[in-house]
Amino acid sequence: MSLPLPAIEVTEMVKDFRVYHRTFASLKSHAAALAKTLVRREAHTGFETRRALAGVSFTVARGEAVALVGRNGSGKSTLLSILSRIYLPTSGEARLNGRMMSLLELGAGFDGELTGNQNIFFNGVILGLSEDAVAARYDAILDFAELDRQAMDLPVRMYSSGMQLRLGFAIAVHLDAEILLIDEGLAVGDEGFQEKCFAKIEEFKTQGKTILMVTHELDHVERLADRVLWLDKGVLVRDGGVAEVLAEYRQGYTHG
Questions:
Q1: pTM value > 0.85
Q2: What mean pLDDT comes out for the span 218-222?
């Protein structure tokens, strides 16, 4: 009997970004400089390539909760952005075997001109749910987000940051996603809402669903994660149990 596929497979992932040294006063001046470069067939030397991810490989089993830790600039958010199909990798492969929902940053996945109601149904369609299936979950989403129906008729761009966070998280955990990607999604909001999020993620885990989260809050990692991946300057330096990896990470962070 064949073994089930992992929920997430990342193989030799590399991501490079170009960092430009020149600045332009306008888009027009940028286009003019680029045109001159093309006409003269000159090499564009006004940038350098920076490697955000350097051959990262790992798998996440179905039903596993994994935390990504590392200093700012270590590549954590870049990796989640590739898995969320916001960025393309420079090389390597990322495969998700299941319906994915991401909560990467405030307002991610929202169209600011659409109402809260419209954004709920828009996200449901992206996940492949029918309008009736989304409607069946509508009340649960509103109850979790603690938003009234009057607010749901307003464009999302008019929402406060807290309202956007609550609605985004409520959508993410109620639309039957099998894989949940979270980038600091629990770091905003009052203590009561954070506790609701923790409880929902724990329920998500008991249902055999998969979580990959980025956070600087190590107490969140200790509470929610089964395993920790430690990235440093784009390199996966440790992959193991929560207690052992966090002990090394804390020591390295203190003495680094």
A1: no
A2: 92
